[in-house]
Structure formats: structure tokens, C-alpha cells
Amino acid sequence: MTEPLLTVDGLTVRTGTGRELVSGLAFEIAPGERLGLIGESGSGKSLTTLAVLGLLPAGMTVTGSVRLDGTQIVGASEKTLVGVRGRSAAVVFQEPLTALDPLMRVGKQIAEPLRRRRDLKGTALKAAVVDLLEQVRLPEPDRIARAFPHEISGGQRQRVALAMALACDPALLVADEPTTALDVTVQAEMLDLIDGLVRDRGMAVLFVSHDLAVVAKVTDRVLVMKDGRAVESGAVTDVVRAPREAYTRALVDSARQLEAALDLDLGDAR
Amino acid sequence: MKRRSSLTLWTGAVFAGLVVLLALVSLFWLPYDSDDTSGGRLTGPGGGHLLGTDKLGRDLFTQLMTGSRIALQAGLGSVAVAALLGVTLGLLAAFAQGWFDDTLSALLDILIAFPTLLLAMLIVAARSATLGSAILAIGLAQSAVVARLTRILVKRVLAQDYITASRTSGTTWPRIVAGHVLPNMWPTLAVNLALQFGLAVLAEAGLSYLGLGAPPPNASWGRMLQEAQATFTTAPAGALAPGVLLVLLVIGVNLVADGLRDVLDPTARKDRAAA
Lengths: 270, 275
Ligand SMILES: Nc1ncnc2c1ncn2[C@@H]1O[C@H](COP(=O)(O)OP(=O)(O)O)[C@@H](O)[C@H]1O
Ligand SMILES: [Mg+2]
Prior knowledge:
The complex is a heterodimer of chains A (270) and B (275). Chain A is α/β, with parallel strands linked by helices. Chain A has ten helices and ten strands. Chain A is globular, with a radius of gyration of 19 Å. Chain B is elongated, with a radius of gyration of 22 Å. Chain B has 275 residues and is an all-alpha fold.
């Protein structure tokens, strides 16, 4: 049995005033495995992903253990963390606009991790950037590489963010609500894209969403969070078909209702 | 919107440019030697002297030209001191947490509340009344303002998602500061530094007016104003001319700052990138 890529054990995050935001969370992700993290807004999903990379806001205290690719993250020095980030795990965030530097051309932002991780320069670097933009299926990669973030659409920005994460060639891709800010048709494409790219590379995925339907499309296993605690976990199909907790059942129902409501709204609009 | 801002920028550039031109020409050519008193006292405009002479018989226009040099030196020098010191302190404060940040912020608040004039008098007392002392005093006072602004700007940029995104890929802090933080705070900082330039020119004129700026043979506009004050009713040109240039330069620089605000705005770049 190989060692898991990510082992979180007894992870607890507190504010400076001692309020617990994440409590005693435990889960594992094996190399190449996919785990979904779901829960209502404010349940501590984002804090959990930040804790995995040692990126919690200053002032918060963390206890417990996060072992990522053999390195203990909790209490690690910035130097250790810089070495682990990108190589072991990279992140795609929810808001595609704010996750890109507004003053830097898209190509340069993708080039940053490429240069560092693969030691590329000059034309080889340019070619690698264009190649990545093609892999996330962006049209006219040359033009997009020269564009500033506000010159491309929200869906395109999120693909760029995905390309930046892939440029790090991480063992684990952390996706924090990567499709929440996108409209429904773009969402489905984005999920397919992530699914395919991750499969090709054999990457492990930690996929965060408040929407069970979205998580079900990408991952096989889910962990349900409420108020900073894990309330239920298991195979996606089991959890959807037979939720054991009332909270999970509510999530399943709301996912169904939301889908139904969205369909109806779209129908009315047309 | 775009056109209006570039009109502001150009008007300002022309105003300030006139003074810059005077200063540049003065380096190679002056109508008279600065200590040439052959013109007779307080003669009116005309008769070989474009604007007349001062109470010692020196050519007013010559003095205005050398004065423009001092005004620009004061502005550039003070802003250089303020930018260097202010940005460094601001960065330190923004990155430091806890007591260092608190202490530095408190110190900056005190320095900002401290009257520039009093600071200048202290520095002049410790050194001597030179242009350098005036620049040091003004630059120090302004560096507190720049530091406080820098601290806020840096903190604001550091809270952005793209900084976290960059950190998740393992970028080191020095690279993040050089690649993301400084470029993103630069537009706001540049506008502020342009405003500080105008304020520094005014402050130097004020110090010279009080005899705390560049010492006599150098013609500072502030001292020209002061010297011409007593004879304002009989020979108004001596006071009006430096006053007008002072206003021209300060308004010009402020207009440039205002125009820069729009030109450096990232969303305004859309037009340029598309063009
Ligand atoms: N910087 C912070 N300071 C204090 N509380 C925070 C901070 N960030 C998040 N929280 C709180 O932590 C809880 C979990 O937040 P988060 O992990 O962002 O939730 P989710 O991603 O599941 O929507 C929320 O109640 C939120 O208000
Ligand atoms: Mg979140």
C-alpha cells in the first residue's frame, strides 16, 4: 500500500480570538485519487484548502496534521512551504477575475510557474505557454497570451487560471469552487476539461463545491462538511442515493431544486 | 472620458514644461549675469530688461530663470527622498506584523502631524540654511505620507486573490513584491508622487520666503517674493512674476497628476491594447 499523497488529521483552524472555524477534520487522498469536499457556504471548505498549502490568513492558528507529499505543512517554515507549493499541489480559485493579476499579460502569468518549475526560457517558454493555452482549449492562444485579464471572458479567465495551476505540474490539483462564478453552459465545459486534463496526467484532485451535482461529475468520493466538521463521507453515488445525515439530504435536495429552478428560469428567458 | 483626461495631462505638461524649459535654457544661457547690477534699481519692464530689475538692479527675468532651476531641484529632490524612504518604510510596515507595524504606524502619524516648517527649522538649525536642508526637511515630512500610503496600498494588494494564487504556485516573496505588488500599487503611487512634487515646490518657496531655503546669491522664487513685497505698489512685476510661475508649475504638476490617474488606470489600458 503506497503512502497517501495528502493526509489530513485532526485539522483544527481557529481565529485569533479562539473561535473554531474548522474542527478536527480528517481525510486522505491517494496519488491520482479524487475527493470532493462539499458543504454549504461558510462551512470551512476554503479554509481547509488554504490550510493544505499553509496559506491561512495571518492571525489564524492551526493545530493537527497536514502531510502533503511527505512534508508536514502545519508549522512548516515559509522556505519549506515555497518548495512544496506548486510542486506538490496547485490551486484554482473560485473567482477567475481576481485570481489573475490585472496588470500582467496572461501569457506572462502562465510563464511564471513554467520558468520556475521546468526551467524554460525564450522561445521554448513561449511555446510551452501556447501549448498550455491550447490544452485548456482556448481559441487563438497567441492572442490570449498577449491579452490582459480584463480583455478576455470569465470562462476564458478560469481556463487561464487552470493553465497556471497545470503549469506547476502538481501531484495534487486543488479546485476551490472553480465553476461557481461561471454560467451554467460554461460550467459543464469546464468540468469536462478538468476531468480530462487531470485524467491524462494522473493527478490527484481535491474538488471543493457547495453543489453536490458539480462534485458528482468530477469525483468518486465526497466528504460533507458542516460548521467546520465532517458530517459524512463516502462514495458519491452512495451519498447522493442514500444520505445518512439530514444535512446531507438537504444538500442533495437543494442541488436537485437548484438544477430544476435553473432549467425553469432558462426556459422562461427563451 | 479618455479624451478629457489626455487634455488635462497635456495642459498640465505644457504649464510645467514652460518652467522646465526656462530651467534648461538657464543652464546654457541667461540674459544677464545673475550678479549684474548695472540695470539700475527697480526699473520697470522694457529698456533691455524684459521684466525690469529688482531693488539691487539685477535683471528680474534672469532671476526667474535661475529660480526655476531651484524650484525643480526642490521638487525632484524632495520627491526622491520621499519615494525612497517612504516606499521602503511602507513596505516594511506592511509586511511586518504586530508591534513593529503598530510602532511604525504611530511614528508615521506623529511625523505627519509634525509641522513641516518646524521640522525644517530644526534641520536648518542643525545644519545650515541651504537648498539641501530644505529638500531634506520637505522630503522627510513627505516620506511619512508616502510611507503611510504605501503601507495601505501594499496591504490592499496583498489581500488580493492573485497574490494567494501566485503563492500557491510557490513564488517567493521578493518575486511577488517585484512582479505583482509594486506594479499594482504604482499607478496610485505615481499620482501621489506627482502631487507631492507640487507640494514640495510650494514648501520650498515658503521656506525661502522665511529665509530657510537656498541662501542669497541663488534666486529662489520664495525669496524673490519676499524681497519684492515692500515695493509691491511701485514695482509689482518683482512679486507678480515669481508668483505666476509658482502657480503655473504647481497647477501644471497637479493637472499632470490628475491626467495620470486615468491614463495609468488598468481598465483604461483596454483601448491601448486593442489599438
Ligand atoms: N480571514 C477570516 N477571518 C475570520 N473568519 C474567517 C476568515 N475567513 C473565513 N472566515 C470564516 O470561516 C468560516 C469558513 O469560511 P470558508 O472556509 O471560506 O467557507 P466556505 O469556503 O465553505 O464557504 C466562515 O464562517 C467565515 O466567515
Ligand atoms: Mg469558499
